[in-house]
Amino acid sequence: MMSGVATGLPMIAHEAESPDFYVHMLCPLKFFGTTVYITTTHVCTLIVFVTILCIAIAGRRSVLKHKDSPTKFGAGVELAIDVLLKFVNGTMGKAAKHYINYVGALFAFVFFSNISGLFMLRPPTADYGTTLCIALISFVMIQYAAIRYQKLGYLKGMFEPIFFFFPINVVSELAVPVSLSLRLFGNVLAGTVMMALYYGMLPIFAKIGVPSALHVYFDLFSGAIQTYVFCMLTMTFVTDKRNVEA
Amino acid sequence: MIDNQGLISACSAIGAGLAVIAGIGPGIGQGIAAGYGASAVGRNPGAKGDIMSTMLLGQAVAETTGLYGLVVALLLMFVKPFKA
Questions:
Q1: N or C: which end of chain B has fewer CB within 10 A?
Q2: Tens digits of per-residue pLDDT, A42-67?
Q3: Would residue A52 count as lying in a domain?
């Protein structure tokens, strides 16, 4: 069971009557001698990707086709791009133009993943595999920015204020992806578990109307806040590493 | 007579309950952040947007320790890492 924890917490159902918030294994694959599974996370991630792709293509068409008199959808797309530009520029300043594509893509993916619980999917971000991957991408970007812009000063900064603080500084760097990924994972998983408990444990008359309020809080509000926080922290860390004059 | 597996399940449930006590700290921290945010908006209503985003960021960071407790509790309850 410990190996299950290491490969992304695929909580497998033990009893049939327990509430259903587990990752289900759909189809086994032989992969270099070990058996891996296509899980619901993969399917939901694919659905999220296709949705984002459709919206992006439709937005591009709409903006390019009606340049003079934008449609409502086209105006919405332009407004979203404006908000994104302002958001990234306000946080990163001069460095914004190098990172806006990554932050935009990250924002879209995490946001659509978080709200996919509204559409009967199991959110891909409620699987530790997904959040660890995107946190590791951010971690590599942060470290790259640190090494490129501080050069030897970064190594020197590891030994400050005194040389035996080196292990503590290394741990504090490594804690960044862990806390980024666990924050997103914990929030989304908590929402998923709460909704599953609500749907699974109450009689039928309690499931009319009331869950919509819970969905608004757990899926929309919490999902949007966590998306904002994830992108904001990534940008703050990168800007922090770039700007130190040491 | 209670068997080994039953004892482990019972102790896991107690441990999960103890683990979510970690929620106290973030609760207090988020409340303090929200209180100072409200007083800042009262003093300077024009800067509401900036205050709001800073406050939410700080609250989300403070929430992390509570979520560690939640993850430990969920592991104990549903993944069941300990076997007889």
A1: N
A2: 999 999 999 999 999 999 998 888 88
A3: yes
Mutate to test the interface with B, among A7, A128, A229 (most CBs of B within 10 A): A229
* Interface predicted TM-score of the whole assembly (ipTM), two decimals: 0.81
Determine the pLDDT at residue A14: 45
pTM over 0.90: no
Q: Do B79 and A185 touch (CB under 8 A)?
A: no
From A233, which residue of chain B is nearest by alpha-carbon distance? B57
Domain chopping of chain B, boundaries: 25-76
- Cβ under 8 Å to B: A residues 84-123: none
- Asked if residue A19 belongs to a domain, the reply is no
Count of other CB atoms within 10 angstroms of residue A164: 7
Number of domains in chain A: 1
A189 CB within 8 Å of a chain B CB: yes
Task: Check if the beta carbon of residue B19 is closer than 8 Å to that of residue B59.
Answer: no
Q: Is the per-residue pLDDT at A16 higher than 70? A: no
Q: Is residue A5 part of a domain?
A: no
- Tokens matching residue A20: 């259903």
Superfamily of domain B25-76: F1F0 ATP synthase subunit C (1.20.20.10)
Task: Kindly tell me the burial class for residue A176, based on how many C-beta atoms sit within 10 Å of its own C-beta (0-12, 13-18, 19 or more).
Answer: middle
Contact state of A4 with B61 under an 8 Å Cβ cutoff: no
Quote the domain boundaries for residue A92: 25-242
User: Does the beta-carbon distance from A1 to B80 stay under 8 Å?
Assistant: yes
| Residue A2 resides in a domain | no
Chain B positions in Cβ-Cβ contact with residue A185 (cut-off 8 Å):
71
- Burial of A215 by CB count in 10 Å (0-12 exposed, 13-18 middle, 19+ buried)? middle
What confidence category does residue A245 fall into, taking pLDDT thresholds of 50, 70 and 90?
Answer: low
Tell me, yes or no, if A1 comes closer than 8 A to chain B by beta carbon.
yes
Residue A7: the pLDDT is 41
Alpha-carbon separation of residue A78 from A25, A74, A97, A118, A242 (angstroms): 40, 6, 17, 25, 30
